[in-house]
Amino acid sequence: MFKQLTYFIFYISIILTATSCQAEPEVTMPDKPLEIVLNTTAKALYERNPEYTAFQENDAQPMGVTFQGYDFPRYKEPTVAIKYPNGQISIDGVMSILAYDNTKQQNYKLSKISLGFLFDHKVSGITDERAYKEMMSLFKKLNNKGWMHAKTLSEPRLSPEDSFTFATKEDGYAFSLNYTYPLSFKQWLQLDDLQTWQLRHGADTFLNIRMNRQTDSSTGKRHYLISSEIFNEVEPLQQVVPNDYVDPLTKEYSKLYDKLPEARLFIETEAIKMGLDIQQYQPDYTLPLVLEKTGIDTGKFVSIDSYKITYEEFIKRQEAGEDMTPYYEN
Question: Residue ranges of the domains in the chain?
Answer without folding.
Answer: 2-238, 249-327
